[in-house]
Amino acid sequence: MFPVARAALNLTARSVQRTAARQAHRKHEPDFHDKYGNLVLLGGAAVFAAVWGYVFTQAGIEWGLSPVGRITPKEWRE
C-alpha cells in the first residue's frame, strides 16, 4: 500500500473513532425520524395502497394478462 493512501486511511479511521467517541457520551435527543418516522412510513403505505387500489378497481384499465387466443403462430419462412 502506498504511504499516502495509508496515511489517508489512518486519518479517516481516526476521525471516525473521534466522532463515535463524541457521540457515545452525548445525550441522545429524539430527532424528526425518531418522532415521526413510523407515522410517515404508515402514511406513505396508506397512500400507496389507496392509489393502487383505485387503479386496479376504478380506472377501467384493460389489463389483459392472459395471452390465450391472442398469440397465433406465424407461417415458417425458410
Describe the structure.
The relative contact order is 0.05. The protein has 78 residues and is mainly α. The protein has 2 helices and no strands. The longest helix has 26 residues, at 32-57. The N and C termini lie far apart (62 Å). 63% of the residues lie in helices and 0% in strands. It has a domain at 1-51: Cytochrome C Oxidase, Chain K (Irregular), CATH 4.10.51. It has helices spanning 3-25, 32-57. The chain is elongated.
Task: Please name the CATH architecture of the domain at 1-51.
Answer: Irregular
What gap, in angstroms, lies between the N and C termini? 62 Å
Can you summarize the main beta sheet? none
Rg over alpha carbons: 29 Å
What is the quaternary state of this protein?
Answer: single chain
Gross morphology: elongated
Helicity, as a percent range? 55-70%
Structural class by secondary-structure content: mainly alpha
Percent of residues in beta strands? Answer: under 5%
How many beta-strand elements? Answer: 0
Task: Give a quick precis of the structure.
The chain is mostly helical. Helices cover 63% and strands 0% of the residues. The protein is elongated.
